[in-house]
Amino acid sequence: MTSQIMHLASNMMELIEERPYSCTECLKIFKQKSDLMIHMRAHTGEKPYQCPECIKYFSQKGNLVKHLKCHSLEKPYHCPDCLKGFKENHELLVHMRIHTGERPYQCSECLKAFKRNSDLAVHMRVHTGEKPYKCSECLKSFKHKSYLVIHMRVHSGEKPHQCSVCLKNFSQKSSLVLHMKVHSGDKPFHCKECIKKFKRKSELEKHTRVHTGEKPYQCSECLKNFTQKSSVNLHMRLHSRNKQYHCLECLKIFKKKTKLLIHMRVHNGEKCISTL
């Protein structure tokens, strides 16, 4: 009996030596740590491999490769690096530049290089000043179609990006990202002079003027300088209160330019619609 126990113990030791990695959940043992890591996904539910076509997730890469055959009929050309599928071979070749870093299309003006010829064509508008995308509401023009789409939200009032915490909506994703710092308390921008922290880079730039003494905003009336644009706007109201507009015909004085323009219709023979 003792010899049988010793023999069984010896076999167990050999098995442990052959398969030293044990699952803490079900006690299953594995030869390699990588095999144990894959097995653990059965307990954790982790699925790190995502299908680039339908966004389905898989626990093992082999299962993802099998699944991709479902898409192979419609997209037979697959990237060997990320397994993304394409309908045409030339689409795959263009995509591969993401992995290789190849940029064959170069700007003749500034020598900046691009992966696609279409990207170069868009970039050239920086040098030519071309703005082919025009707003139908205010006729403002843009270099990129995406800029026009964002701009149109000014007129439509559309705010498609919503904060998951307070449900506030924003017209631009970048505005939402900045807003989220209000909830997270994140202040990544540090002042080198006084170590004060800020949520936005623009806030840090305003603050540093306290230390540098820079006043980039100037009053067009008296040439006084200010650190902030809002300060110069407030200051300009002082001039607007004292400003007077004189009629060159009868020397009548008006506080607002619009009132003077309406009054001038009397001298020009136009019918005065509004009373002063």
From TrEMBL:
Location(s), subcellular: Nucleus
Principal place of residence: nucleus
Alphabetic keyword roster: DNA-binding, Metal-binding, Nucleus, Repeat, Transcription, Transcription regulation, Zinc, Zinc-finger
InterPro entries: Znf-C2H2_ZIC1-5/GLI1-3-like, Znf_C2H2_sf, Znf_C2H2_type
Domain C2H2-type: residue ranges: 21-48, 49-76, 77-104, 105-132, 133-160, 161-188, 189-216, 217-244, 245-272
Signal peptide residues on this chain, from the entry's feature table: none
A Pfam family this chain is assigned to: zf-C2H2
Gene3D superfamilies: Classic Zinc Finger
Protein name as catalogued: C2H2-type domain-containing protein
